[in-house]
Amino acid sequence: xxxxxxxxxxxxxxxxxxxxxxxxxxxxxxxxxxxxxxxxxxxxxxxxxxxxxxxxxxxxxxxxxxxxxxxxxxxxxxxxxxxxxxxxxxxxxxxxxxxxxxxxxxxxxxxxxxxxxxxxxxxxxxxxxxxxxxxxxxxxxxxxxxxxxxxxxxxxxxxxxxxxxxxxxxxxxxxxxxxxxxxxxxxxxxxxxxxxxxxxxxxxxxxxxxxxxxxxxxxxxxxxxxxxxxxxxxxxxxxxxxxxxxxxxxxxxxxxxxxxxxxxxxxxxxxxxxxxxxxxxxxxxxxxxxxxxxxxxxxxxxxxxxxxxxxxxxxxxxxxxxxxxxxxxxxxxxxxxxxxxxxxxxxxxxxxxxxxxxxxxxxxxxxxxxxxxxxxxxxxxxxxxxxxxxxxxxxxxxxxxxxx
Length: 404
Fold this sequence. Notes:
15 helices
């Protein structure tokens, strides 16, 4: 009996350390994504201060993805080689530089640089932290929900923080980023105490950084369905994150930064709650349910613009949040399940490329079309494209269901 007790105590201590590590890494992931959406309610203020066009605004938003893709393609497998902590800390450091660039931006070039750095930080941290969480928690499905929930809780907090400070505090274009700096420094300190899960990290001299699309041939078919579903889901999310402040101001005549922050927070907050409360729903069912819900959420958004109706916009954001939560959680769950253990960060990073592409390309298209025609025509076209993408993703998911 006396020999069993120390072993049991050791197991209990290991579990407690893993729980603490999960909290630390999930918090890191959430805080990184706070910075991704923090500027959303501030874009109209930046636009007024620096005098740029709506097309320029969409480009500033979308340049974030160049940073994402650079991080994911160049360094997506880096943490598989040198360790999770050794990549997480530099990612947070880039986030700190991004926050400083936002706070001291003197014109559109500064915003482009800040946004690209933010994308690089998020891309580098997200693949690493998602793989880290999967290794700290034995249940891949639960690990996926923890990672996806942390992502969206961070995205929900960002616009609320930015909008609230812009509405009620001084220095609205600087103070939010100074507060974010404090959060980043705190989470960097906490990350030092999370245990490393890569057991045999390589020395830097042996690290391979050659860009490649990190999806092993044997999982190509199962990879297609979650990647397409993620692209469609994040296209809708990007509309809210980039363009809701402009839609509120032009169509509903509501220009308060806090209101824009609340609407975007609603979307991401409902998505986060959906993720953590639908654990019993299978990943395939979650993806298909998300694709079905994308249709009413995007067409209600157009209806809110036509009717100049805030209640319709609130309902559309709620449905979009449920669709976003189910789509991201379900597709990420599949990715974590099919990824080989020694290539997990690389495969997750490749999946995130699809997410971030959906987060940028449609928004750029909307901005260019709105400049050439009108915002309403651009938004109706966007709804039609989302409808088509949802159909393609659903057909792909059903076709390859047996592979999942």
